[in-house]
Design goal:
By secondary structure, the protein is an alpha+beta fold. It is built from 15 helices and 21 strands. Bound molecules: flavin-adenine dinucleotide.
């Protein structure tokens, strides 16, 4: 009998497991894969470590919010980071021109003003708005975390409309929206707060993980075990079993038939899938219908390139290329013109600062393109699927070579992933990259709280708060706060 059973060993499950095992609860985490981490999983090809879902993080300078979370999670001295270029951690290439995002608000503004000299007022307003929104969210990066509900006023504001309201310069609007791939935003519905929290964190400071994100997973797992916790891998949960009076969950049943009892349960699995595993009259049909009707973010196609030794120079920034003028338009691509843009970067390794051993290139891909293989499983999708992947990779490489001439001559080998890869490795709906899409036109429909109608079942991760390292850390606090008190947990960070 455990105090807490956590279903899913993704970032949300591990962080919650860390908090609660540290607080003295007897915790067990059950993960369906042989590798923990969910989107934090890495894989190795030709001795290169590839991340599947953790490319860079923000607010990691000493004293900033993610740094303070990492300090609490005992990760600060264990995980290796590299600061991206101060004067251009992200380059947005639009209309054949490079626009740099610089770190630090003054630097960010000065750098933007070089390309948009008449837009001082718009940029000042933009920066002030980002800071204002960030401060309304439990003081995401000020010196004290606090209980704060003033953020609600921003839920209904749309990013696209807001950017249009501060400037008539459409190029600047598109450059400021140029990181929309980080939240897979749709112009008609993306809430400004999602844009603001994410852009703010990177403008504060932007970092790459050296040698991949798996270090986070491994150190968290070690700490949980050192705190007396149990982690069971290759243990897929099939259902949550209610007690006889349909009041509480009593245990989970694994795919292999094994049953594990606990007093309380936390699900790190997508809410749609979680409630498919719970059969209880306590969960109202209206709630299920609402959750099932929420739209999910689009998926992606990725190329993982292995370079010939000492052949391709490492670049210390991320490169976002847009073929057209509209940085939002890439996700709504017409299949005949795919790909409409991409994000590319060279992962940081402890091997060399000068040469890159690999590169990851990502672009959106709709799940529908993979429909004919949707009933297949990993490594068993057939020759036609492999041919589809090869064709798509070559199309993407053709577009890449327009900006990185002769890229192919540096390549030793490349590997690819599709929406089906994400669906099958992480268990996301249709390979959706960030899960639930928040909607500024109907904000409360897309808000899901950690607490459920079953008193001993909580939710965590899965974009319930927000996705990403920062969003999921804050989300784990909100989930665990239901058990030990959020104010108490904030106190741990503040002190
Ligand atoms: C392509 C991509 C790029 C990204 N880039 C960044 C980035 O640069 N920076 C950043 O901060 N964030 C990034 N993110 C987002 C970040 O990776 C995620 O928000 C975060 O890792 C999600 O963690 P999670 O706990 O919510 O869920 P998940 O990672 O989805 O974890 C859920 C876990 O539950 C397990 N599971 C599912 N069903 C069951 C079951 N029935 N029984 C047992 N276990 C089960 C899964 O195997 C998985 O381990 C990226 C994501 C993607 C996909």
């Amino acid at each position: 009998m455990y105090d807490i059973l956590i279903v899913g060993g993704g970032l949300g499950g591990l962080l919650s497991g860390y908090v609660l095992s540290k607080e003295g609860y007897k915790v067990c985490i059950v993960e369906k894969n042989h590798q923990l981490g969910g989107c934090l999983q890495t894989f190795v090809r030709d001795k290169c470590v590839f991340d599947t879902g953790m490319h860079y993080v923000g607010s990691m300078a000493e004293g900033q919010i993610l740094w303070r979370f990492f300090k609490y999670f005992d990760l600060i001295d264990k995980v290796k980071f590299k600061k991206l270029d101060e004067d251009g951690f992200d380059i947005i290439n639009i209309g054949e021109k490079d626009y740099k995002y610089a770190q630090g608000y003054d630097n960010f503004k000065e750098t933007m003003l070089r390309n948009f000299p008449d837009e001082n007022e718009a940029l000042t307003n933009y920066i002030n708005k980002l800071k204002e929104i960030k401060n309304s969210f439990n003081n995401y990066s000020s010196s004290r975390l606090d209980l704060n509900t003033s953020s609600i006023q921003y839920f209904g504001i749309n990013t696209f409309d807001y950017l249009k309201s501060i400037t008539n310069n459409t190029r600047l609007q598109n450059v400021l929206a140029g990181l929309n791939a980080l939240y897979a935003g749709k112009p008609e519905s993306n809430p400004l707060y999602v844009h603001a929290i994410i852009n703010n964190s990177f403008i504060e400071s932007a970092w790459r993980l050296i040698d991949g994100g798996e270090q986070i997973t491994n150190h968290l797992a070690d700490s949980i075990k050192a705190n007396g916790g149990t982690i069971l891998k290759r243990s897929e949960v099939k259902r949550f079993v209610m007690n006889q009076s349909d009041e509480l969950i009593e245990k989970v049943e694994l795919k292999n038939g094994e049953q594990i009892e606990a007093k309380k349960f936390i699900s790190n699995v997508h809410p749609v899938k979680t409630f498919e595993m719970v059969k209880s009259n306590r969960i109202k049909k209206a709630y299920i219908n609402r959750i099932n009707s929420i739209e999910h973010s689009i998926s992606i196609f990725s190329i993982y390139i292995v370079f010939k030794e000492n052949s391709f120079k490492y670049f210390n920034y991320n490169y976002y290329h847009y073929k057209g003028e509209d940085s939002w338009g890439v996700r709504a691509y017409d299949a005949s013109k795919w790909p409409e843009g991409y994000m590319a970067y060279t992962p940081a390794t402890s091997k060399s600062d000068v040469y890159a051993d690999s590169m990851i290139v990502m672009t959106y891909m709709k799940y529908d393109e993979l429909k004919q293989w949707e009933n297949t499983t990993v490594e068993k999708r057939g020759e036609e699927y492999l041919e589809f992947k090869r064709k798509k990779a070559e199309q993407l490489l053709n577009l890449m070579e327009e900006r990185f001439p002769n890229l192919r001559s540096h390549i030793k080998a490349y590997y690819t992933s599709t929406p089906l890869t994400y669906r099958d490795y992480v268990g996301t709906i249709n390979g959706s990259i960030y899960g639930i899409l928040k909607d500024s036109s109907n904000p409360f429909k897309t808000l899901i709280f950690p607490r459920t109608k079953i008193p001993n079942l909580l939710l965590t991760g899965q974009n319930i708060n927000m996705h990403g390292l920062l969003g999921v850390s804050m989300g784990a606090f909100m989930t665990c706060g239901e058990l030990v008190g959020l104010k108490y947990l904030f106190g741990k960070i503040n002190n």
